[in-house]
Specification:
single chain, alpha+beta, NADH Oxidase, 5-stranded antiparallel β-sheet, 5 strands, 11% strand, globular, binds flavin mononucleotide
Length: 224
């Protein structure tokens, strides 16, 4: 495939992707295709490389039903999705420079003791002085969530490129969903919050209308 064909294939996938309201419940995503989608989440970038998010894949019907009761935006998706993913974003306390998660990530990154010390200092200054979020639990947690959305976008774009539909979902009572997950023993609310969910599967119907977007001129300003 040449360069232009590759570009066209990617644009076709972006046109194909739409917020799927209801999936064909008889169609399941093959395990290797779903692993492939997960892999693109895993390879997604994160600030400092600290990966402040995890994923829950909710395949249990009872858990899905409980979540549906408090999710106005996922009424059609929860009962029909082949795979239903809940993003977990680390709470602010978890992302402090001296916290266990950040220390673990510096090990994952394979840093020397000297590099760890330099990074800890730089990261602390970033939180305190550059972004001024270090002492604000909510802002820190939202910063984790922002990064989860990068992986979310990558997963949906990847899925579209292999003909799999998806729908991002923020239409839910956050506290209620977290309580349900805690009750089912899959969430510790001191460690994670739930910023967004995403359903994957195969569309039951074609989208009702084509994409409606602003034109690029309205969005982009080149500063030459
Ligand atoms: C962060 C986020 C949250 C969303 N939440 C919901 C939701 O709860 N339920 C839903 O049906 N669609 C949801 N959507 C889908 C948007 O409404 C949809 O992406 C937008 O209208 C553009 O349409 P398209 O994705 O089909 O191109 C969400 C989209 C994003 C990015």
């Amino acid at each position: 495939m040449n360069h232009d064909q590759t570009k066209q294939q990617i644009i076709d996938a972006f046109q194909f992707r739409h917020a799927t309201k209801s999936f064909d419940p008889t169609k399941k995503i093959p395990a290797d295709d779903f692993q492939f989608i997960l892999e693109t989440a895993r390879l997604s970038p994160s600030s400092f490389g600290y990966e402040p998010w995890n994923l829950l894949v909710i395949q249990n019907e009872a858990v899905r039903n409980d979540i549906r009761d408090v999710s106005w935006g996922a009424q059609g998706q929860l009962p029909t999705a082949s795979h239903y993913v809940i993003f977990l974003a680390r709470t602010g306390g978890q992302m402090q420079p001296d916290g266990a998660h950040v220390k673990h990530m510096m090990d994952v990154l394979g840093l020397s003791d000297e590099a760890k010390a330099g990074r800890t200092k730089r990261y602390g200054l970033f939180l305190e002085e550059d972004f001024k979020i270090g002492d604000n639990e909510k802002a820190m947690t939202d910063w984790s969530a922002k990064q989860a959305y990068i992986a979310l976008g990558n997963m949906m774009s990847t899925a579209a490129q292999i003909g799999i539909d998806s729908c991002p979902i923020e239409g839910f009572d956050q506290q209620a969903v977290e309580q349900i997950l805690e009750r089912h023993g899959v969430l510790d609310r001191s460690v994670f919050t739930v910023p967004v969910m995403v359903a994957f599967g195969y569309r039951a119907d074609e989208p009702k209308r084509s994409k409606q977007r602003r034109c690029l001129d309205e969005i982009v300003t080149f500063v030459d």
